[in-house]
Amino acid sequence: MEPQPPALLSAPRMLTLIGSILVSLSSGTNYIYSAYAPQLGARLLLSHTQLNVIGLAGNVGVYISGPAWGRVVDSKGPRIPLISAFACLLIGYLGIKRIYDDGTGTVASFMHIVILISCTFMTGFAGNAGLAVAMNTTAKSFPDTSRGTITGLVLSGFGLSAFFFAAVASIAFPGNTSALLLVLALGTAMPMLLGLVIVRQIPLPPPSTTFGVEGGLHGREEYQPIPSGDAALFIRGSDSNTSLLDTEHAHGASNYHVPESSTAVELVSDQIVSRGSSVRMSTSRARPVHDGPNVYGKQLWLTPDFYLIFAIMALLSGTGIMYINNVGSISQALYAKGNPNYDELEASRWQAAQVSTLSICNFSGRILIGLIADMFRYRLHLPRAYCFCIVSTLFVVSQLSVISVDGVAHLWKATALLGLAYGSLFGIAPTIIIDWFGLSHLSENWGYVSLSPLVGGNLFSLMFGRNLDSHASNDDSETHSPLSLIRRGGLPSEHQCFDGRDCYVSSLYVTATACLIALGLSVWAGIRDQRKAVEAKREVIWHAEE
């Protein structure tokens, strides 16, 4: 007899959850970039466009490596990604620290910029490896009833990463950017080694939903997502009038009959279990049964739902990445406007406050959206895709809020909204991918969807950087300006803009429009999901009446 899997609340399963959260916590340090980017720019005399290119390298490392890491995690497990993450995080942050320490206030050479880009890329590359392991392991170690909540909990560690490491560095080494980079190097690499020991997939116990000879199918009557382009059939729980004349192969069946893409399967010959009907399940013609759809590889790229979620993610995540990479510069622009008593230490405090606020709200959004998603599905019987509407609305409000802020003391409100929206986006997206495309190839599919932020992130961030540089002070044109004396008296960069919100507001009009478009697509996604459920239910009734 095979050993029984551990219970849902067993110590091995909880240890895996804790280990996954720690790995996730060490994987999200790209969000802390804006905590040291202005200081890096001041030390090496980098423009805002150059700083955005360096910051984007980290995002490129995260998202472009998604499909590769996803395939490795799905097929080989967590060992290779965790070892790679350890090495890349250690080398990446120590490399950035070395370039920063060697800076002397002279213009950085081309080689220094190349090294910074490479090191930042490595940190992002490593972060995605750790996140893929954490997300995949927990998603496969907990049942669907709590999958949104558990996934959101693990992803919340990713969002809290910036706040955690910034807080540790600020308490132990206040105002010391070099020490912050050292904390990042050691503090992110070590948990990856710990993950090698405690992060592993725990088999799920047998499902509680079983077929009885007289009792029918015992379980919840609930909405189930219907994958587009797949032969997945929707089944609702039966009542006590449902009988199964042959139950030999019925135990442990899922809510779907889905053929593998490589297997020719005739589903029409199998009767469908439906409300109030007496149905026979053929034991001589048993068919493969899967827990949901199983869309991946070439089939994924031929599915319209893939392009829908890709577009929503590109617009919203691009907006978030632009803000995250530049919130330090935004706070400095607002602080510098008309300020004759500019204090670099005070400016860095405002900057750190934005990073901490962003990280805490990012963390909160990932947890809250998981709870909301599970409530939508199991309480309201609505598709989780409607959560995209909530997320898109938060993004729209956040952009309007940033546009209206004209003082650094009020910037935290906009930052909080953006962090909540961004965390919610990445908290719900993996769960939607499971609903639409299945669990078997979650990491690989998430990797392909994760390419979407490269589109919006690169476009919006470079637009923001060029816009900020175009408003930056110019020595020749402001030789006799009082502001030029202030700048020469101690502002952190020669590329500082003194116009406050006018330095960047035109970029925000673009992102606000993009978020409105994403809101429209989100409404469409929810409606489509619900329509597919209704159509599938009608098909079930039609088969039952036959």
UniProtKB/TrEMBL annotation:
<keyword id="KW-0472">Membrane</keyword>
<feature type="transmembrane region" description="Helical">
    <location>
        <begin position="508"/>
        <end position="527"/>
    </location>
</feature>
<dbReference type="GO" id="GO:0000329">
    <property type="term" value="C:fungal-type vacuole membrane"/>
</dbReference>
<feature type="transmembrane region" description="Helical">
    <location>
        <begin position="306"/>
        <end position="324"/>
    </location>
</feature>
<dbReference type="GO" id="GO:0022857">
    <property type="term" value="F:transmembrane transporter activity"/>
</dbReference>
<feature type="transmembrane region" description="Helical">
    <location>
        <begin position="385"/>
        <end position="405"/>
    </location>
</feature>
<feature type="transmembrane region" description="Helical">
    <location>
        <begin position="53"/>
        <end position="73"/>
    </location>
</feature>
<feature type="transmembrane region" description="Helical">
    <location>
        <begin position="411"/>
        <end position="434"/>
    </location>
</feature>
<keyword id="KW-0812">Transmembrane</keyword>
<dbReference type="InterPro" id="IPR011701">
    <property type="entry name" value="MFS"/>
</dbReference>
<feature type="transmembrane region" description="Helical">
    <location>
        <begin position="80"/>
        <end position="96"/>
    </location>
</feature>
<dbReference type="InterPro" id="IPR036259">
    <property type="entry name" value="MFS_trans_sf"/>
</dbReference>
<keyword id="KW-1133">Transmembrane helix</keyword>
<feature type="transmembrane region" description="Helical">
    <location>
        <begin position="179"/>
        <end position="199"/>
    </location>
</feature>
<feature type="transmembrane region" description="Helical">
    <location>
        <begin position="446"/>
        <end position="464"/>
    </location>
</feature>
<dbReference type="Pfam" id="PF07690">
    <property type="entry name" value="MFS_1"/>
</dbReference>
<protein>
    <recommendedName>
        <fullName>Nodulin-like domain-containing protein</fullName>
    </recommendedName>
</protein>
<feature type="transmembrane region" description="Helical">
    <location>
        <begin position="12"/>
        <end position="33"/>
    </location>
</feature>
<feature type="transmembrane region" description="Helical">
    <location>
        <begin position="108"/>
        <end position="131"/>
    </location>
</feature>
<feature type="transmembrane region" description="Helical">
    <location>
        <begin position="152"/>
        <end position="173"/>
    </location>
</feature>
